[in-house]
Amino acid sequence: MALFDSSLLGTIVWILFFVVMAFFYPKIMIMQMVGKLDETATMFEGYTNKAKNIVLKRIAKKQTQNLRQKVADFLEFFAIDPINLDPYGILNKLDHLVGLVEDKFRDFSREVSPKMSPEDQASLVGGLSGAITMNQIAKIVRHYVETIRKTKNLQLALVLQMQMPFIEKIAKSMLNGTETMTNGWPMGDSVGPMVASNLIGSSKVKEIKDTVVARKKINGRNVIIIKAKGPGGRLGKPWEVVEKEVRRGKVAKIISIDAAGKLEGEKTGSVAEGIGVAMGSFYRAFIENVATQKKVPVESVAIKMAPEEAIMNMPIDVLKAVPKAVYITEQNIKNTRAKGSIIVIGVGNTSGVGNDKKSLGQAEKKAREIAQIMKSRGEKEPKKSWFSFGF
What we know:
Elements: H1 2-59, H2 65-74, H3 90-112, H4 118-151, H5 154-182, H6 191-200, E1 205-207, E2 211-218, E3 221-228, H7 238-248, E4 251-261, E5 271-275, H8 284-294, E6 298-305, H9 307-311, H10 316-320, H11 322-335, E7 341-346, H12 357-380
Parallel strand pairs: 3-7, 4-6, 4-7
Antiparallel strand pairs: 1-2, 2-3, 5-6
Helix pairs in contact: 1-4, 1-5, 3-4, 4-5, 6-11, 6-12, 7-8
């Protein structure tokens, strides 16, 4: 009888424990998760303040309250995507919209830094863009944290928590990218323009809409080399130059050189050849259209790196890949059989990279210097364990 009572009591206790845990454990769990997510959201907001201060320090050593408020207000800048229900003409709509955004950034840069050189103002535009993106990341994460706190939605908390390591990686790289672009340092995405500058050598360049064009002979072939104007942080408009050149005369081939996202396990700085236009934005459609109409082969050289490395200061492994990319491009030119000029495009943000081989040496020196500084910073920062995210 005593044994029966003991078993019955134990069963009742387990049932009660199960009921209590079923009701209270999710609440305890979500309270713990919201606390950790709130800490991360606060950290991202701190990143936004750091990004804003990086831009402010580049504008002026002593900032007025009016200047600080202007920059803070500009970080809320947004652009609305055009309607795409009618796909006809969407590329022209996007081109028009992007042009308006660029004009807005340039005007603001001139307004807050009228004494800066045009190259430094161009770099400041990139820094402002990075700070705006960082601000948006912080606001979106805060939005979801407050939504979880309000609704007590455990599923949403789990989804956000699982994504948080990736979001934090992007946020850290964006803060680094803001500093890199603001100061006009070479970044991962500058590798395409670096290869182009190497190929230009000492040849004269012609400027067309924030883009430079050089014409020279390489391996006995007439080559047209195109890149954004440096060393200020610009993307230029190489697609417009390509369109004109293809329509103007006989073009044997178009070769684009750009940074490309690598897979986990691939080595940063590895170089690959392929077919198609290596260009991240929708603007590659303009080149694809004219190349298709004129039956011009389109090939590419990709220097691989992680997506976050493309917006950060240039990794040394990427810098070391430049000679190999130059060699592959020269061999491609040499092996081209079709008659006509060959167009080479150094795609990417030309931050910190000038327009000839001489300036390239300065860019390489600066890239190594900044990489060493960033490495020393990383060694000083305390490393997070995976327990920090609640896994």
